[in-house]
Amino acid sequence: MDRFAKYLLTGLICIVAGGQFVQVVTRYVLEIPVMGLEETMVYPTIWLYLLGAVNASREDTHIRANVLEIFLKTERQHAVLAVIGEVVSLVVGLWLLSWAWDFTRYSLRVGKESPTLYIPTFYADVALFAGMVLMMLYTLLHLVKHIRIILTAEKAP
C-alpha cells in the first residue's frame, strides 16, 4: 500500500507539473493558450491535495502544536494525550465525513459538468469523500495504536 501511494502521488505531481509547464510554454513562449488545460488540471490537483492529506494521516506527520508534550514525562502520558487528540480528530472527521457524503450524493444527483470540456465534476467532487474515508481509517488505526501503548505501559513493572 505504501508503494502504491508513493507512485500515485508521484504520478499526480508529475501530471500537475507537466500541465503547468505546458501552460507556461504555450501561453508565454508561443503565445497560444491551450483551451481547457486549466480545467483539466483541476482534477489531478484536487486528488493530489486530498491524497497528500491522506498520506500525512497515514504517516502520522500532520502539523501539530502539542505544547502539552513539553510538560509530560512518560510515554504513557504522551499516549494519553495522543488518544485525546485522535478521539477529537475522529469526532470532527466523522462529522465532516457525513458532510462529504452528502456533497458526493448531491454531486452525483445534479450531474454538473465543467464549463469548457463538459467533464463531469463528480470525478473531482468524490475526492473529498474518498480522502475523508481514508483519513478517518488512518486516524482510527493510530487511535488503536496509542490505546495499545497505554495498555502495555500499565502492565509494565
Describe the structure.
- The chain has helices spanning 2-29, 37-59, 75-110, 122-155.
- Helix 1 packs antiparallel against helix 2 (37-59) and helix 2 packs parallel to helix 4.
- The chain is mostly helical and 157 residues long.
- The protein has one domain.
- Helices cover 77% and strands 0% of the residues.
- The model has no long low-confidence stretch (mean pLDDT 90).
How many individual β-strands?
Answer: 0
> Helical content, roughly?
over 70%
Counting helices, strands and paired strands, the structural category is mainly alpha
Q: How far do the termini sit from each other?
A: 37 Å
Shape: elongated
Tally of individual domains: 1
Question: What is the C-alpha radius of gyration, as a whole number of Å?
Answer: 21 Å
| Strand coverage percent | under 5%
- What would the average pLDDT be, to the nearest integer? 90
Low-confidence stretches: none
Largest sheet: none
Helix-strand topology string? HHHH
Per DSSP, the total helix count is 4
Layout of secondary structure:
Blueprint: H1 2-29, H2 37-59, H3 75-110, H4 122-155
Helix pairs in contact: 1-2, 2-4, 3-4
Brief digest:
The chain has 157 residues and is mostly helical. 77% of the residues lie in helices and 0% in strands. It has one domain (2-155).
